[in-house]
Every structure is written in structure tokens, then in C-alpha cells.
């Protein structure tokens, strides 16, 4: 009798554990594909070794909009020719500077088309409140792309934006963040 | 329904006597807000025109015959009929400035709001937007593109409001106290005769605040109590009379 009972429970137990492994372990791995930046750009080399400030590259334009990542032309002010031994630099100069092309950088925080974001309204906050700590990295972090939606895994979710707005007394009207 | 009082209230005063009906506002609006070319422009039930110019006539034979043109954006009502009927809170009036929002990803396309709006300012996407090859390069990154199955409407070019606030922050100014013309929608900017004036109705220094108080100013279907933020202006009595449903014995407002 007791033997028969355990036989009934066992398949459920196996199924349950199996579902947990798939749900927690396998599915996230399957859902996100790992991508590397097109150029292994080191923030350490530029910020620590070259003493550049963040806002030399990540500037505001005169109309208050955020310029984001510098254009190849701006990088070429220093990288018109290969200066060092680093293969990443050689690749950057050959494939982008010489070809006059923009680098298709992957944006960890890229938001959907219908979201409006303003950096200047958040200039009192540290970059790492919202971004992975890219500013101190030597190798850019891995970019995880959601295979279904095509969005980055590190993108800030709406509830995270709204929670901070609520805590700081900023407006949570839909049109503040949507367009 | 309780209406929210805003510190800033963006409003428009459209001078019908200056409007020539050229339609530049409609074109500027479509380009600014990424409205795709129409599938069949002759079928007015299927087209999208956030800004639409209507033709008015006094209905009299020559020589008394007179016509006028009335551009119609979204009225950004103080007490909107649309947002109160929305079952999913995809449209609200809760942001400083008083612009009625429309959140496309939340919209389920039930079209209650379209039935509720007395101004026919709301439109439904019957088709996925398609641009002729190459023309997608002219899309404006400031406005998101809407898929088939959602409702959309004029937003007073809301993104321009956000950009104006960014610029004010950059210059160390108060984003809630924008000067006249720091933020104006595409239609008002393009209007060749200056018939569309835009500004903060609550700021007595802005032109709109004065114009809206003129005795020739009126609003469409004012007596419904929707409290629109769009005003019209005409010195012609018959034009003002068409702004509302008057009974034969009633006098036109402003007379």
C-alpha cells in the first residue's frame, strides 16, 4: 500500500523539480542571447589613464538634449591613426575611422520607442543608479538581448522609474515618460 | 467628475478670420507626428487627421454668401469625455500643462473614447502604417509610430513641450515657467497667416491669455461643459453662432 503511494507522488515530484530547473535555470539562458560590443572599448584606459572626464564624451547639447555616445568623428580627434598596440584600437581605426562609419554600440539602457527619457532632468543622480557600472569597466559588460522582444535585459522597467519618481515627489503622469 | 487645476494650462486661440484654409497646419502635423500616407484618402472614416480644417458657410445666397475655415485639433478638454470612459486608463489628464495623454501600448482599441469625444478629435488605426520605400528616413524620432488597432489624437506636439523643458533646465531656468514661443506645436509654427496662437492660458503675459478673454472668443460646444483649452476667435457673428447649438431665439455668445 505504502509502496503504491510513493509511486503516485514520485512523477509529480520529478515533474516539479524538472519545471523548476527549466524555469529558473534553462529558460533565462534560452531567452537571452549574449552579445559583445562591436569594439572592446575600455572606459578605464580613457578615464583613468587618459584623465578624461565623463562629460567630455557624454555631453549635453546646447538645447539640453543628451548627445549619448560620441561619434566616430569625435573619437578620431585622437584616433586618426593607430597609437598603441591594442588590437581593439586597430580594429576601431581600420573599420570605422578609415571607413567613416558610426559604431553600432549596444545600449544597455535602450528604451522602447514610446518612452521619453531626459538625462538633464536626472543630472543630480549618479549614472550607476540606472546604468550598469560601465564607467569603471575595462571590458564592457556582456549585453543580454531578449530573444522575443529584442530589448536589452538591463533596461529599466516602468515600475523602477515610477518608484523613484514617487519617492522623490516627481510626477508620475503617463505623459512624463511616454510619447 | 472632479477636474484638476493646473499651474500651467497650454492653450490655443485660433483666429478664424485669419485662416485661409490653406491646410499647411494639417501637413505640418502629419509630418511632425509620423502619420503615414493614407491608404484611401477619399474614405474619411478610415483616415487619420489629428488636425482637420473644416469649411463653414453662412448658407446664404450671393451676395451675402460667406465662408470660413475652422482648424480642429484636440481640444485638450478641462473635463475630458474620453479619459473618463477609457476602461484601461490609456488616456488621462493628469500632467502639468493639461494635455490629455494617449498611451499607445496601453490602448486596447475599444474606441469608447472616440464615441465619447464630441469633437471627433480621435482616430483609429485601421491599418498598420506604411511608408513608401525611402520615406521612412523622414520619420521624426520624437514621436512613436502607432500600430494598427490603437486610437490616437493630437497631443499639442507634447514632445516639443518636453524638449522645451530640457532646454530650460540646461539654461538654468524654471521648466514650469516657459517663456512665450519656447514651446509651440507644429501647426502654430507653420501657419502662414499667424491664425494659430499658442501659449499658457494661466500666464497673463502670454498672448493667448488675453485673446481667450476677448468678447469675440468662443469655444466649440461650450455649453456641454467640457471646458476646452482651445479657443476660437471671430468677429463675424454667424461664425461664432456655429460654434454651439443655439435655439432660434437665443442670442450668440459675445453679442
Overview of this structure, please?
- The complex is a heterodimer of chains A (179) and B (255).
- Chain A is mainly alpha-helical.
- In chain A, 41% of the residues lie in helices and 4% in strands.
- Chain A is built from seven helices and two strands.
- In chain A, helix 4 packs across helix 5.
- Chain A is extended and about 75 Å long.
- The relative contact order of chain A is 0.14.
- Chain B is α+β, with helices and mostly antiparallel strands and 255 residues long.
- Chain B has one domain: Alpha-Beta Plaits (2-Layer Sandwich).
- Chain B has seven helices and eight strands, in the order βαββααββααβαββα.
- Chain B has helices at residues 24-32, 81-85, 112-116, 158-170, 186-190, 207-211, 237-241, and strands at 10-15, 52-57, 67-72, 122-124, 151-153, 196-200, 217-218, 230-233.
- A four-stranded mixed β-sheet of chain B has the order 6-1-8-7. In chain B, strands 2-3 form a two-stranded antiparallel sheet. Chain B has a two-stranded antiparallel sheet with strand order 4-5.
- The longest helix of chain B has 13 residues, at 158-170.
- The A-B interface holds A 60, 62-65, 112-114, 116, 118, 120-121, 171, 173-176, 178-179 and B 89, 92, 94-96, 99, 101, 103-106, 142-145, 155, 158-159, 162-163, 165-171.
Amino acid at each position: 500500500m505504502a509502496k503504491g503511494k510513493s509511486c503516485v507522488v514520485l512523477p509529480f515530484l520529478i515533474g516539479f523539480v524538472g519545471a523548476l530547473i527549466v524555469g529558473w535555470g534553462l529558460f533565462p539562458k534560452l531567452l537571452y542571447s549574449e552579445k559583445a560590443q562591436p569594439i572592446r572599448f575600455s572606459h578605464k584606459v580613457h578615464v583613468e589613464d587618459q584623465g578624461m572626464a565623463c562629460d567630455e564624451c557624454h555631453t549635453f547639447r546646447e538645447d539640453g538634449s543628451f548627445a549619448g555616445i560620441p561619434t566616430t568623428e569625435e573619437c578620431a580627434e585622437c584616433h586618426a591613426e593607430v597609437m598603441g598596440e591594442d588590437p581593439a584600437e586597430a580594429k576601431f581605426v581600420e573599420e570605422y575611422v578609415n571607413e567613416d562609419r558610426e559604431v553600432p554600440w549596444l545600449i544597455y539602457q535602450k528604451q522602447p520607442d514610446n518612452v521619453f527619457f531626459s538625462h538633464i532632468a536626472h543630472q543630480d543622480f549618479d549614472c550607476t543608479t540606472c546604468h550598469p557600472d560601465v564607467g569603471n569597466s575595462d571590458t564592457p559588460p556582456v549585453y543580454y538581448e531578449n530573444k522575443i522582444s529584442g530589448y536589452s535585459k538591463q533596461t529599466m522597467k516602468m515600475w523602477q522609474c515610477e518608484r523613484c519618481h514617487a519617492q522623490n515627489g516627481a510626477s508620475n503622469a503617463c505623459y512624463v515618460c511616454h510619447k | 467628475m472632479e477636474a484638476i487645476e493646473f499651474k500651467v494650462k497650454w492653450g490655443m486661440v485660433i483666429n478664424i478670420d485669419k485662416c485661409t484654409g490653406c491646410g499647411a497646419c494639417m501637413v505640418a502635423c502629419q509630418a511632425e507626428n509620423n502619420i503615414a500616407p493614407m491608404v484611401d484618402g477619399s474614405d474619411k472614416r478610415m483616415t487619420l487627421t489629428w488636425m482637420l480644417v473644416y469649411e463653414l458657410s453662412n448658407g446664404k445666397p450671393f451676395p451675402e454668401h460667406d465662408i470660413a475655415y475652422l482648424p480642429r485639433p484636440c481640444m485638450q478638454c478641462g473635463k475630458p469625455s474620453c479619459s473618463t470612459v477609457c476602461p484601461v486608463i490609456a488616456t488621462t489628464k493628469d500632467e502639468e500643462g493639461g494635455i490629455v495623454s494617449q498611451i499607445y501600448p496601453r490602448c486596447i482599441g475599444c474606441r469608447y473614447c472616440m464615441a465619447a469625444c464630441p469633437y471627433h478629435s480621435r482616430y483609429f488605426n485601421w491599418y498598420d502604417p506604411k511608408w513608401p520605400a525611402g520615406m521612412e528616413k523622414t520619420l521624426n524620432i520624437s514621436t512613436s509610430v502607432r500600430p494598427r488597432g490603437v486610437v490616437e489624437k493630437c497631443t499639442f506636439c507634447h514632445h516639443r513641450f518636453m524638449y522645451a523643458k530640457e532646454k530650460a533646465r540646461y539654461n538654468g531656468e524654471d521648466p514650469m515657467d516657459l517663456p512665450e514661443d519656447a514651446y509651440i506645436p507644429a501647426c502654430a509654427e507653420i501657419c502662414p497667416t499667424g491664425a494659430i496662437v499658442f501659449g499658457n492660458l494661466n500666464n497673463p503675459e502670454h498672448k493667448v491669455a488675453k485673446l481667450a478673454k476677448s468678447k469675440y472668443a468662443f469655444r466649440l460646444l461650450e455649453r456641454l461643459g467640457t471646458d476646452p483649452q482651445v479657443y476660437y476667435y471671430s468677429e463675424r457673428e454667424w461664425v461664432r453662432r456655429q460654434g454651439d447649438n443655439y435655439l432660434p431665439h437665443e442670442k450668440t455668445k459675445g453679442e
